[in-house]
């Protein structure tokens, strides 16, 4: 029997996020480039509750949109994530699994950003059945399914979650998963390489990204929100392709940048913003998140007022 690892009685949610493969994010900053055979030492280490949907729940909650988190948690890192969500006031309703939730490591060194993501635990079909029930219990208006799939789970589970009720579903998953989905989705948020992987196209320029996003959109997405790193973001709908450059900020690291972009977009939609403004909000939220380390939640107080800083053009 699967166990419920969550706080409180299930209640309706505006947005519910699903993270099937959560992670504790371990961010280490070193002062010298890593050298083979040498021990690097640092006093600067940070642990955050992570995984794409969990980050979206944290960012949305901080942006004033109720967004409980569900998915699978297990082991000591799973307990740490649950405690962090409680401390941050993010409602949670996870299926407790026998496997251990993973630890993902980012090393920030003078020569760059190194990320190592563990593939995560094995999850069983009965855990998936329990997850579908959790989602039905909450009956959200919008569902966000984000992050990699744990071992034992195939892309059809995403279609199953999206099709289990009347909610609109956003997905932020790897290109090979996007390629295999067959349901109807509100939005997907590929980054440049995921967009290339999902379409088999080379994505170098903004124009390349717009063509690839338009092709991907036709496979069942109302919007494709493509993130292009320091080049900004692109929002493609049936009638439009809108491009917004990134805001010039001092970047600490880009962990959580894509999750922040999606959160800002969903927060804009939840507030009834027109699509163009939701794209602006998304870019401001992403700029805030890349300015802090790991997936810690920065101050979002003036995000909505500052969205006019973002210029949007038609591609
Ligand atoms: N170097 C940067 N400077 C400013 N903003 C950035 C930078 N890198 C990323 N961003 C912002 O974060 C968003 C998501 O970044 P990206 O790296 O494309 O996502 P992901 O984390 O999914 O790979 C971008 O669309 C942009 O708005
Ligand atoms: O599930 P994946 O693809 O391994 O990614 C998980 C990692 O991505 C993050 O959600 C950050 O994502 P982004 O940098 O793409 O926004 C981390 O919190 C987590 O460690």
Automatic annotation (TrEMBL):
It is an enzyme of class 2 (transferase). Its EC number is 2.7.1.56. One of its GO terms (molecular function) is 1-phosphofructokinase activity. Residues 21-297 form the Carbohydrate kinase PfkB domain. It holds the Pfam family PfkB. SUPFAM superfamilies: Ribokinase-like (SSF53613). InterPro entries: Carboh/pur_kinase_PfkB_CS, PfkB_dom, pfkB_Halo, Ribokinase-like, Tagatose/fructose_Pkinase. Keywords: ATP-binding, Kinase, Nucleotide-binding, Transferase. PROSITE patterns: PFKB_KINASES_1 (PS00583), PFKB_KINASES_2 (PS00584). Belongs to the carbohydrate kinase PfkB family. This is 1-phosphofructokinase. The gene is pfkB.
């Amino acid at each position: 029997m699967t166990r419920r690892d969550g706080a409180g009685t299930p209640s309706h949610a505006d947005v519910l996020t699903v993270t099937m493969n959560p992670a504790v994010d371990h961010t280490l900053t070193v002062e010298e480039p890593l050298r083979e055979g040498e021990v690097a030492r640092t006093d600067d280490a940070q642990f955050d509750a992570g995984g794409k949907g969990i980050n979206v729940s944290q960012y949305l909650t901080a942006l004033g949109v109720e967004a409980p988190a569900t998915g699978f948690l297990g082991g000591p890192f799973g307990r740490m994530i649950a405690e962090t969500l409680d401390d941050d006031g993010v409602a949670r309703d996870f299926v407790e699994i026998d496997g251990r939730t993973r630890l993902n490591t980012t090393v920030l060194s003078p020569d760059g950003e190194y990320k190592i993501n563990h593939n995560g635990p094995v999850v069983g079909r009965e855990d998936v059945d329990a997850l579908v029930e959790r989602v039905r219990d909450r009956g959200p208006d919008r569902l966000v399914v984000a992050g990699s799939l744990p071992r034992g789970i195939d892309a059809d589970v995403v279609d199953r979650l999206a099709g289990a009720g009347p909610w609109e579903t956003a997905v932020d998953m790897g290109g090979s998963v996007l390629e295999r989905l067959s349901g109807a989705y509100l939005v997907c948020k590929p980054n440049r390489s995921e967009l290339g992987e999902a379409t088999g196209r080379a994505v170098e320029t903004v124009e390349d990204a717009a063509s690839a996003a338009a092709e991907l959109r036709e496979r069942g997405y109302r919007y494709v929100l493509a993130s292009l790193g320091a080049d900004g973001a692109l929002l493609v709908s049936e009638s439009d392709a809108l491009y917004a450059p990134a805001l010039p900020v001092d970047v600490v690291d880009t962990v959580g940048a894509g999750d922040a972009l999606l959160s800002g977009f969903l927060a804009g939609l939840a507030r009834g913003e027109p699509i163009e403004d939701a794209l602006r909000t998304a870019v401001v939220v992403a700029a805030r998140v890349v300015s802090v380390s790991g997936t810690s939640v920065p101050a979002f107080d003036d995000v909505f007022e500052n969205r006019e800083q973002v210029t949007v053009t038609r591609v």
